[in-house]
Specification:
Blueprint (H helix, E strand, L loop, with lengths): L12 H16 L1 H15 L1 H8 L4 H13 L3 E6 L3 E8 L1 H8 L10 H11 L4 E9 L2 E8 L6
Antiparallel strand pairs: 1-2, 2-4, 3-4
Helix pairs in contact: 1-2, 2-6
């Protein structure tokens, strides 16, 4: 896996991200925020996107596992016949923002949705993200089914 931080875990980074999200939305608007996250997924996580382009979801799954384990998130990954489902029972990023006593940005979870869209850009995959609570969500990776009519 190309993207693997090592060394100390600095969870307070999530507080800085929360504050930055609010700043970008206030100064430039929500579309600029979404564009930034999309480009991050597409360009920064390029190797994940390239693997997805080749039909290989292994690096994305490894990425999910590595970072949720590293940050002690509560999650599980379920592989079904036509999809891979990431159940996030307690998001470590949201948990840390709350621990810092910050108000969670209403756009905080947009980073997940739009980074995922960027990683899947021009591939045969999509990731549907459904929030199930303030600190939980379900992310479903599946192949896009094209209408052959």
């Amino acid at each position: 896996m190309r993207y693997k931080d090592t060394g100390n875990v600095h969870l307070d980074f999530h507080g800085a991200v929360n504050t930055t999200i609010n700043y970008i939305v206030k100064k430039f608007g929500v579309d600029a925020l979404h564009d930034t996250f999309f480009k991050t997924g597409r360009d920064v996580y390029k190797s994940i996107r390239e693997k997805l382009s080749n039909g290989d979801n292994s690096e994305l799954i490894e990425h999910w596992s590595y970072y949720f384990d590293r940050e002690k998130g509560k999650y599980r990954i379920v592989t079904e016949q036509d999809c891979v489902i990431l159940h996030v029972d307690e998001c470590p990023a949201v948990r840390q923002v709350k621990k810092l006593g910050l108000d969670l940005s209403p756009n905080f979870c947009d980073q997940t949705e739009y980074v995922n869209k960027g990683m899947c850009h021009n591939t045969d995959f999509e990731i549907e993200t459904v929030k199930t609570g303030e600190c939980s969500c379900v992310q479903t990776l599946r192949r896009i089914k094209y209408d052959t009519k």
